[in-house]
Write a structure and sequence with these properties.
By secondary structure, the protein is α/β, with parallel strands linked by helices. It contains 7 helices and 10 strands.
């Protein structure tokens, strides 16, 4: 157990929401910026896990394969922008399914977890898209890849700024994007993990990582080859 605390052999796929609603500013300085800052805060807490990065809006893409090079994670995070993917929307099912496929393909038979950072708008869990997201969470649990969710937003919500000024409107009224804490807590529960709303301090990572991901059973530690000298 002491060895596991020093080095946790686990694969963690981070799934980061870059949909247009992540421009909202109900958390400081902005939802997406806050999510990236939170990930930077998480990296020093890690205990040797391999980390990958998937971004999504209306579609999903792998930005960084699993790696232990945290400098690579830091270098790629600024690339996660709302304009990175062409398809608008918030296709959580596509992102979670890509995370499952990538973890199973890159490390067959290895234990892992999925960490979703999203503004958790209720619209993402409604209708057929919502049903697909819930099914994707169940698929993660069946694959023994528990889902942990950090909600980056507030229940009061905020308008969604447009890149060229103004805000997103529907039928002449400004759209308010609100964090659906109950809905995403259910999503995490179906995925076999846990949910936490973003906090100013470290309480969110204490709940999701220290008392969540870090406690998951790790993979067997690989036997390292050690050079030895032989007298001739």
């Amino acid at each position: 157990q002491k060895l596991a605390a020093l080095h946790h052999e686990l694969n963690v796929m981070v799934v980061l929401d870059v949909s247009p609603s992540m421009r909202a500013q109900d958390v400081s300085p902005q939802r997406l910026q806050r999510a990236r800052l939170k990930l930077l805060d998480l990296l020093p807490r890690l205990h040797g896990e391999r980390v990958g990065l998937i971004v999504f809006s209306g579609s999903a893409g792998l930005l960084l394969p699993l790696t232990r090079d945290m400098n690579a994670v830091r270098a790629d995070l600024p690339l996660a922008q709302p304009g990175l993917l062409d398809t608008p929307g918030s296709n959580i099912a596509a992102a979670l399914n890509l995370a499952r496929r990538t973890l199973l393909a890159q490390s067959p038979g290895k234990r892992g977890a999925v960490l979703l950072l999203t503004d958790g708008d209720a619209s993402a869990l409604s209708g057929p898209a919502g049903a697909a997201a819930l099914a994707a969470a169940r698929g993660l649990k069946r694959a023994d890849l528990p889902l942990y969710v950090l909600g980056v937003g507030t229940s009061a919500g905020a308008t969604i700024p447009l890149p060229d000024g103004g805000v997103v409107e529907q039928d002449g009224s400004a759209v308010i994007s609100r964090l659906d804490e109950n809905g995403f807590a259910t999503l995490a529960d179906l995925g076999g993990g846990a949910y936490q709303t973003v906090q100013d301090g470290d309480a969110d990572w204490e709940a999701l990582y220290d008392h969540g991901i870090l406690g998951l059973p790790g993979n067997p530690h690989p036997l390292a080859s050690t050079p030895t000298w032989r007298e001739l």
